[in-house]
From TrEMBL:
<dbReference type="Pfam" id="PF20062">
    <property type="entry name" value="DUF6461"/>
</dbReference>
<dbReference type="InterPro" id="IPR045592">
    <property type="entry name" value="DUF6461"/>
</dbReference>
<protein>
    <submittedName>
        <fullName>DUF6461 domain-containing protein</fullName>
    </submittedName>
</protein>
Length: 214
């Protein structure tokens, strides 16, 4: 597998998209959802946010400490009490970032209802990394990075396979020959939704919605 086909300076030292790293707290336990053809407010509600808690969200210039994410700081969510959800739209795709992993891959099916395509990437504090891909309300693929090899890509749907090829392999000492690094699902989710060139400055400039959850 080639190296990630992401623009220069868009990945951090671990291979994660920098815009996600810059949203996240230290040692994150977080989730990224993407869905095509659904607006941010509807996407937040699809992953479980209560409508009356959804509000416009302006990210602050910095995080107050290592354990507070930018969305958490914007929404006044204290670390450990709830998740901060952040949603924005780029072209046909909407992303929902969950800073604390309170939403899960089960929400992917709800996001993909009514003929839509959606994906969810999960990364836990224990370095468990996975991705769910769903179309029209049905799960099509679930990928555990620990079990994923280059030879498995041929079995994926065409658009998901193409996303993993763009995600590539970020070389490091923990990557086994023929395997993938633990940031690959975040990169593949971004590649699927056309977010490979997205920066935190781009995110700051777009209309954002947020909600506390859980």
């Amino acid at each position: 597998m080639p190296e990630p086909a992401f623009p220069a300076n868009t990945l951090d030292a671990d291979g994660d998209p920098k815009w996600i790293t810059e949203l996240a707290c230290a040692d994150p336990n977080h989730v990224l959802h993407v869905v095509r053809g659904l607006d941010p407010e509807a996407a937040l509600e699809a992953v479980g946010a209560k409508p009356h808690l959804v509000q416009p969200c302006e990210l602050p210039g910095s995080k107050p400490d290592d354990w507070t994410s930018l969305p958490g700081a914007a929404l006044g969510v204290q670390p450990g009490t709830a998740a901060a959800l952040l949603a924005g739209r780029v072209g046909d795709w909407t992303f929902v970032y969950d800073d604390s992993g309170h939403t899960f891959d089960e929400e992917t099916e709800a996001l993909s209802a009514s003929g839509r395509t959606a994906a969810t990437s999960v990364f836990t504090i224990n370095a468990d990394a996975s991705m769910t891909f769903a179309v029209d309300g049905e799960q099509v693929a679930w990928i555990n990075v620990d079990d994923l090899g280059v030879e498995d890509l041929a079995e994926l749907p065409e658009d998901l396979r193409a996303a993993f090829e763009v995600a590539g392999v970020f070389q490091g000492e923990d990557v086994e020959p023929g395997g993938f690094d633990y940031a690959v699902t975040m990169r593949a989710t971004c590649a699927l939704a056309g977010l490979t060139a997205l920066t935190i400055e781009d995110v700051r400039r777009m209309p954002l919605l947020g909600a506390s959850f859980g």
